[in-house]
Amino acid sequence: MALMRLPPELLDMIIANALPEGFESIALTSKRAYALCKPLIRYHNKLCSQFRNFTYYVKSADPVVKDGSAFDLIARIAVEPVVAKYIQDANFKMDGFFTYRKPRELLVDAHCEGVARLLADSPYLEQAGLDWKEYYAAIEEEIATVRYSQHAAAFLLTLLPNVKVLTLPQLWKPLNATDKLVEAIICTVKRPNLPYGGSSLSQVTRFEPSVSILPKVRYNLDWAIRFLSLPHMQSFRGYSCVAIDDGHKSVSSQNPYCGFGENLQFVDFASCCLDEVDIAAFLEHTSQLRTLKYSHSTKEDGQLQNWDICKFITAIERKVGSHLVQLSVSIRHLGGSITPGNVSMRSLPCLQRLKLLLEIAMCNANATAYLPTTPCKTPVSGLIDGHLESYESYIDGLVPKSVSQLSLTSSGKGRHEKALAAMFRDFPARKSSQFPHLKEIDLTCPDNADIAYKNQCSRLLVMAESEGVGLELKPW
User: Fold this and answer.
1) Gap between the Cα atoms of 127 and 188, Å rounded
2) Are the C-beta atoms of 449 and 413 separated by less than 8 Å?
């Protein structure tokens, strides 16, 4: 191997600089290479164990050993720069929780000088038009008053070239200076020719803000979109997302965020409050999306909010229906009502896994029977008595023929047995034409469900088994 013919002192420098990305590959090339790498193997393994899947911590037995906040980690990187390269899964959720309201001094002067030097040499601060001394003063003020440091949390994001999974601090909040810094990071990542060694956050494929799912919590989708515009982003899990003042629609049309989500394949909106306009705007450029999960939660703002679930699903179908493989739509908390409507999902040709509320079938059935002028309380309770055949054509369109795994959630009340009976009417005879690929059904059957609903679940269980379809009844 030509590399091994280099002088020993030069080989030592190459091996040290190969940490961590190329270190193991070099060590495995030959016996001599392994011998040269051996003095660093224990050090390499220690850093892998401590930083590859990183989360903040403080060792109670040794309070000097701590990475309890963004400032602590920045200080560690200032002294030991290679640490930053080891971090691949960056879970910063607990940033500041180990120092909040606890007496604490700044790190020793040498570490503070190292942090200041990092800021002074930062091309990102310069690109963002931020004075490093003012920025450092903001960090010092936040640390000195024993508060979470948003400035430190944002600056840390400029130091991470190998991170693939990014979870923001739970206390993350928008500030003018830190927003500018994030924008500078994204602009740098999206340049055609990245600097040697890669740009910070250039490898991120999965992003998640740390947000509670409580009804009182609201997370502006605008804040997430800044990160979703990273060029290799494939997965996003968002909690309590709302669209505030059409914020994400305006941001998405501005550089460097234009065309955000082009590589997204997985999106999970948990306990969010979005309408059909919001979801359509978000999905505008997600041509690679394969999985979309959404659970709706009305946010506490003093007003009850109705949700037009039919228009919501229609918007999803229109934007990503041609390539979506998995879709889940559910309700976590609804303070208002479901707006009656009609929806068909037959134009989702690739869909294989589908999770729906049985209320949607009720909406479709109600829409065929009469046209109510006011929203109906969930669960929908107005299904008209009559022949199930009259509703069949409207409910059939809810499940694409390509679906192999179907999940239906229901309260088991409000005459949901009627919708269930209409959806699976003459199942043995219609299975091959209406559900040709269906293999599994998950159906909620709560303990307090109506007797009529439980009986219908039992009948469906027998029909499904006769056609070789697995059906699991779940309490919720």
Assistant:
1) 9
2) yes
Q: Any idea what the Cα angle at residue 171 is, between residues 167 and 175, rounded to 5°?
A: 100
Long-range CB pairs of 38-42 (<8 Å, 24+ gap) are 40/15, 40/16
- Which residue's entry shows tokens 């679940």? 457
Q: Is the dihedral of CA 208, 211, 216, 221 positive or negative?
A: negative
Residues 6+ apart with CB under 8 A from 46: none
Tens digits of residue pLDDT in 224-237: 998 999 999 999 99
Q: Which residues contact 472 (CB under 8 A, 6 or more apart)?
A: 440, 441, 442, 443
CB 106 within 8 A of CB 112: yes
pTM (2 d.p.):
0.86
In this predicted model, what pLDDT tens digit does every residue of 392-409 receive, in sequence order? 555 667 899 999 999 999
CB atoms within 10 A of CB 457: 20
Q: Over the chain, what HEC string results?
A: CHHHHCCHHHHHHHHHHCCCCCHHHHHCCCHHHHHHHHHHHHHHHHHHHHHCEEECEECCCCCCCEECCHHHHHHHHHHCCCHHHHCCEEECCCCCCCCCCCCCCCCCHHHHHHHHHHHHCCHHHHHCCCCHHHHHHHHHHHHHCCCCCHHHHHHHCCCCCCCCEEECCCCCCCCHHHHHHHHHHHHHHCCCCCCCCCCCCCCCCEEECCCCCCCCCCEEHHHHHHHHCCCCCCEEEEECEECCCCHHHHHCCCCCCCCCCCCCCEEEEEEEECCHHHHHHHHHHCCCCCEEEEEEECCCCCCCCCECHHHHHHHHHHHHCCCCCEEEEEEEECCCCECCCCCCCCCCCCCCEEEEEHHHHHHHHHHHHCCCCCCECCCCCCCCCCCCHHHHHHHHCCCCCCCCEEEEECCCCCCHHHHHHHHCCCHHHHHHHHCCCCCEEEEECCCCCCHHHHHHHHHHHHHHHHCCCEEEEECC
Backbone dihedral angles phi then psi of residue 473, each to the nearest 5 degrees = -90, 125
pLDDT in tens, 187-235: 999 887 765 556 899 999 999 998 887 777 788 888 899 899 999 999 9
Cβ-in-10-Å burial (0-12, 13-18, 19+) of 433 comes to: exposed
- Measured in residues, the chain has a length of 476
End-to-end CA distance of the chain: 62
List the one residue out of 16, 84, 17 whose CA is nearest residue 54: 84
Q: What is the pLDDT of residue 374?
A: 42
